[in-house]
Structures are given as structure tokens and as C-alpha cells.
Write a sequence for this structure.
């Protein structure tokens, strides 16, 4: 077990609240025995366009690196991405990621290129340090530090972007994760740029190494002078082959449901629904279907 990264803090509660409902559905083929995997997904955007993507990944375990390539589209503009991941290759405990993007304009004439270099170092179970340098319209440097002690983890992030030769944008973030009791996690997040705070908590109960019941509550965001959005989500394992997720969002009184059923060892299906309650009727309803293939 290694120390968590800055992205890990709060991820359990956020995944329960935001993942697996209509709008996040897709098709997924997990990694094959050879280390080759394919993932394709589709989701509906706010502008009603269908966003699609196809990702292929090859893992070279003996050599210690992974190669990934993907193509995605928001219904209008395609994006091509390539990535190389080196784990413990350059230095023990060091993970290095080299990636690049090519975004094609709607007239298919103009292409925008971007790149990113990320290095992540684990210091046992106590700390992790990450540095990310990226370039799109402007160079950006991000430094992440996480320190853990028993059931408490704190992460600090600093982002510096060069807007012009004389102007720089500085942004700071703080994350705190606390496990005050068994199967209970609390998280807090603060960002200096937008003066936004987010609080969330997660309760889960594992039975036979499987998630039986989980519940999460989140305020997202909490900003002075702005009413927060309140989320409540719960997941329940019905039996060995079926699970149910439900979520309520105070904004527009939105209710979401997702039922997942394993048809066989190689195939599972998820059926989802979402609607906003207005004058005792549901509006803006969405339906989703996801098929997951495992080979």
C-alpha cells in the first residue's frame, strides 16, 4: 500500500456521487490477459451532442511501461491523444507520464497541439510528491504534495500559469481526508482562485470483500453568498449479480437511478434514469444503457 496522491483524496465519495448515472455511461472492455485493453464510451453533453471516445492500452509488465492511445469527439471536434507511462523505470518509486493531444477544429483545417509531463514519487506510505508541466495556450506548472499519518491525509496543490510575459496566475488548493471511524471517510477541499469549499462524507460497509451499502453526502460548492448544491447518494448490493445506485441533487431537485446486473461472467448491463422534479412531475428526463464486456 502506498501513500495516496492529491487526486485520490475525496475520490471515493466523488465517484459514488457522480459516476455510473445517465450522462456517464459507456462501453468498457477490461484488460485482457495479454495486457491489451480497449475502452469505448458514449455520453450525452449539455448541448445534446453525443460525446464518444475509444481508448486502447498495452501494458508491458516486464519492461515496466504502458502505452495508450485514444480518439474522442464531442460530436463536432475530434481529439487525438497519446500517452506513455513509466513505472519504476527511471528510479524506484517514481512514476513518469508523457502525453500529448491534437485537437482538430470543426473545419478540419486547424490543429491545436498540447503536451504534458508528469512525475509522481512515493515515499513509502507517508507521502507523495507530484510535478506536472503542461502546455496548451500557455505553460502551466502544478506541484502536488500529500502527507499521511495513520487515518489522516492532507494534500496541498499549487498551480502557476504564465498568462503573458509580465502576468502570472497563481492558484492554491488544500485537501483534507480523515477516517474518524471504521468504514467512514470525511473530506474537505478549498480552492483559492474561486474561494470555493467542498465538504463530503462517505460511509461504506464491505461484506465478503464486496460493497454492500455505501452512502455519501456532499456540499458542492460552498461559496460565500452562493447557495450550495446538496448531493446525497447511496449504493446497495442487492445480490451477487445486481446492485442499485440512487442520487438526489438539490439543484433542480434532480433524482437519478442506476441498476446494474451481471448477466454472465463476460457481460453486465446497467440501466439508468434521471429526472428533475417540478410541480410534482418529472422533467428533463434522461435514459441510459451501458454494456460492459470482459474478455
Amino acid at each position: 500500500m502506498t501513500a495516496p496522491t492529491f487526486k485520490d483524496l475525496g475520490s471515493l465519495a466523488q465517484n459514488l456521487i457522480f459516476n455510473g448515472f445517465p450522462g456517464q455511461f459507456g462501453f468498457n472492455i477490461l484488460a485482457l490477459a495479454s495486457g491489451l485493453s480497449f475502452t469505448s464510451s458514449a455520453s450525452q453533453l449539455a448541448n445534446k451532442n453525443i460525446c464518444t471516445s475509444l481508448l486502447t492500452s498495452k501494458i508491458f509488465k516486464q519492461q515496466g511501461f504502458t502505452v495508450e492511445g485514444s480518439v474522442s469527439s464531442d460530436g463536432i471536434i475530434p481529439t487525438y491523444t497519446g500517452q506513455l507511462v513509466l513505472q519504476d523505470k527511471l528510479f524506484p518509486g517514481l512514476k513518469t507520464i508523457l502525453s500529448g493531444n491534437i485537437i482538430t477544429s470543426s473545419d478540419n483545417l486547424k490543429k491545436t497541439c498540447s503536451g504534458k509531463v508528469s512525475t509522481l514519487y512515493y515515499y513509502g506510505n507517508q507521502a507523495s510528491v507530484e510535478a506536472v508541466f503542461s502546455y496548451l495556450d500557455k505553460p502551466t506548472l502544478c506541484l502536488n504534495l500529500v502527507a499521511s499519518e495513520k487515518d489522516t491525509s492532507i494534500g496541498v496543490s499549487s498551480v502557476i500559469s504564465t498568462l503573458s510575459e509580465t502576468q502570472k496566475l497563481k492558484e492554491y488548493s488544500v485537501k483534507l481526508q480523515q477516517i474518524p471511524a471504521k468504514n467512514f471517510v470525511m473530506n474537505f477541499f478549498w480552492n483559492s482562485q474561486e474561494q470555493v469549499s467542498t465538504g463530503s462524507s462517505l460511509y461504506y460497509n464491505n461484506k465478503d470483500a464486496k460493497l454492500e451499502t455505501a452512502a455519501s453526502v456532499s456540499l458542492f460548492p460552498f461559496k460565500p453568498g452562493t447557495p450550495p448544491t446538496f448531493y446525497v447518494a447511496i449504493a446497495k448490493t442487492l445480490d451477487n449479480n445486481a446492485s442499485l445506485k440512487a442520487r438526489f441533487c438539490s439543484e433542480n431537485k434532480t433524482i437519478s437511478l442506476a441498476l446494474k446486473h451481471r448477466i454472465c461472467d463476460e457481460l453486465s448491463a446497467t440501466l439508468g434514469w434521471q429526472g428533475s422534479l417540478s410541480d410534482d412531475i418529472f422533467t428533463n428526463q434522461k435514459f441510459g444503457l451501458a454494456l460492459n464486456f470482459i474478455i
